[in-house]
Amino acid sequence: MTQVKDFTRTELFWEGKWQRPRSTGQLELISPSTEDFIGRVPDAHEADVDSAVRSARSALAPDSEWANLSQAGRAEAIERLAAALQARDQQIKELLGHELGRPVHLPPRPNRAAEILRYYAALTRGRETEQRRPSPDPRPPGAVQSSRVRYEPVGVTAAIAPYNGTLEMGLYKVGPALATGGSVVFKPSPQAPLEAYHLAEAALEAGVPPGVINIVTGGARTGRALVEHPGTDLVAFTGSTNTGRVIAESCGRALKPVVLELGGKSAALVLEDADLDHFHRMVPYLGFTFAGQNCFIHSRILAPRSRYEEVVDAVVSAARSIVVGDPFAPETRMGPLISAEHRDRVEGMIRTGREEGAVVATGGGRPEHLSRGWYLEPTVFAHADNRMSISREEVFGPVVVVIPYQDEEEAVALANDSEYGLAGSVWTTDPARGEALAARVDSGSVGVNTYGFNSAAPLWGRRASGLGGELGPESLHTYTRYQSLHLPGV
Ligand code: NAD
């Protein structure tokens, strides 16, 4: 059973120290599984954001400890940070149970926070900080024989994260910022601010120089202050497409670089020859991870007409197998939605799906055995078509639709007929055919008989799913600015 705890924090973090905020505002935290009060954190206002940004700038001053570290020294600092976060693995898992209602006893997996940071530490070690490039045309007049291209950190990154995986999404930004010698002000989600305090504690334990990592908690107002602050040089945002558009407009006016990781409506293409037993085992992960509150969720399952009923049965039986309940119970695989408002919104979308003619094959309501908490049953819609709003809008809840298709051409057309272009997958016993089809899916990442994350591979959402991207060596480019020093002779 969930034990009610008070996780209240009263301070923010900059200059490598805990700081008393100027703002007296607070965010109240309510457990999504018990509806109990579990603490408060500061709702930082503009003056707090200003202090955090100044601190981040001071870490980049030419005489600062951070600016004078070698690449190897930076890599070591990132590795120490990884180790300090890994040591907090169990504490953070339990915190997620309270703060987000995320099941605590999911099958073990490597510590993702440490893995991301170690990946960036390795990139930091191997990274050049300048390149000498001969000119292809070194003839007079005004001949430049060669140039020295210097790689500098972009500066201070405003890192803003959503509630699902706020720490992980934060580290997608902290990793490359530190790898390139930059600094960060991190604003976690107001619905999941507590993980960020572990990041600050880990930074202290790891001896990350003061000002390199700074934390402000708060909501949209705090985020806006960070985006609009003239002292932030890059905005790295993960969250909804609507908020991303607002941030992009503001960055457009200021001509401030911005990278956006946004929503999704990904499709799983189940081909005629798919191994449905394997697919069935993957459905809880693909469609219902964290009660569907994940950007990569494959909320559209495309099934061949010849095997339509079989695919619906497989998806329904997988959905029914998911144990929904107390995030601290060992058997639980799915917890609640983040808030009462969000559950209302998802229920509204389920209603619309029914009105539009899709048929609820399982779920669709609140689990009867749970009287408290913002739970919903894993829900599968059959006989959906791709024009229905349930097939077009991001639900961000435990709801998938199964859409029939006639042939491969139609399957690819349906997969690509979406505002979003984040993820996707192809399921077939012919891997070569799977890869050929995956290449035609117009999204930033596609799996063949699998889906998941690889820190070394870019996550580069297309269309309404993002602008620019994260992870992989490609991400370092975003966090770098270049200076070409032209020289008359080599
Ligand atoms: P959200 O857009 O409501 O909030 C995200 C963050 O933005 C929060 O920290 C919030 O306080 C802040 N914010 C809100 N208004 C702001 C403003 N005007 N200026 C600056 N900051 C502002 O998103 P959410 O509900 O927390 O998260 C769910 C969304 O995130 C889903 O759409 C999901 O698909 C998306 N997401 C995308 C990825 C990805 O990698 N593409 C990963 C996880 C989540």
Low-confidence segments, given as residue ranges, are none
Average pLDDT reading: 96
Tell me roughly what share of residues is in helical segments: 25-40%
- Shape designation: globular
Distance between the termini: 70 Å
Structure description:
The chain has 490 residues and is of the alpha/beta class. The chain contains 15 helices and 22 strands. It has helices at 46-58, 71-86, 89-99, 112-125, 166-179, 194-206, 220-228, 241-254, 276-288, 308-320, 340-355, 389-392, 408-416, 431-438, 474-478, and strands at residues 12-14, 17-19, 26-30, 37-42, 130-134, 146-153, 156-160, 183-187, 213-215, 234-238, 258-261, 267-270, 300-304, 359-362, 379-382, 399-405, 420-421, 424-427, 447-448, 462-463, 466-467, 480-487. Strands 14-15-16-13-12-18-19 form a 7-stranded mixed β-sheet, sandwiched between helices. Strands 9-8-7-10-11-21 form a 6-stranded mixed β-sheet, sandwiched between helices. Strands 5-6-22 form a 3-stranded antiparallel β-sheet. Helix 1 (46-58) crosses helix 7, helix 2 packs antiparallel against helix 4 and helix 9 packs across helix 10. The longest helix has 16 residues, at 71-86. The mean pLDDT is 96. The structure holds nicotinamide-adenine-dinucleotide. Nicotinamide-adenine-dinucleotide (NAD) binds at residues 160-164, 169, 187, 189-190, 219-220, 223-224, 227, 238-240, 243, 246-247, 261-264, 295, 394, 396, 422, 459, 461, 465-466.
Short structural summary:
By secondary structure, the protein is of the alpha/beta class. It has 15 helices and 22 strands. Nicotinamide-adenine-dinucleotide is lined by residues 160-164, 169, 187, 189-190, 219-220, 223-224, 227, 238-240, 243, 246-247, 261-264, 295, 394, 396, 422, 459, 461, 465-466.
